[in-house]
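Q: I'm building a small set of examples for a reading group on sequence design. Run inverse folding on the following structure and report the sequence directly after it, with nothing in between.
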């Protein structure tokens, strides 16, 4: 983010989100080195649209989503990857999503 902000939630969409639940955690940081986990769980498995994920409120400059794979709604085995269509950061007091003033960094194995 451009500056340290209060973060209350994310909106995110999952590819084929009506067929599977994405497993992930959300972490925040002030410096990009020390991270706090503010959410650990999954998407609903009910929609391909954006869905809100409430976080433990925190002040941060950096936000990252750590994918843990997915489970399928039909009981078949999932996989150890995630596919998010969109992620929006929601600041404190349920304000509108922040404009994309961020860098997207994808790293395997973290």
């Amino acid at each position: 983010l451009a500056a340290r902000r209060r973060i209350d939630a994310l909106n995110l969409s999952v590819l084929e989100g009506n067929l599977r639940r994405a497993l992930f955690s959300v972490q925040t940081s002030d410096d990009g080195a020390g991270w706090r986990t503010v959410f650990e769980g999954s998407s609903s498995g009910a929609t391909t649209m954006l869905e809100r994920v409430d976080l433990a409120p925190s002040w941060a400059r950096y936000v990252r989503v750590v994918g843990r794979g997915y489970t399928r709604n039909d009981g078949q085995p999932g996989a150890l990857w995630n596919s998010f269509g969109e992620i929006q950061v929601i600041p404190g007091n349920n304000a509108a999503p922040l404009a994309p003033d961020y860098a997207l960094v994808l790293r395997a194995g973290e």
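The longest strand covers residues 62-72.
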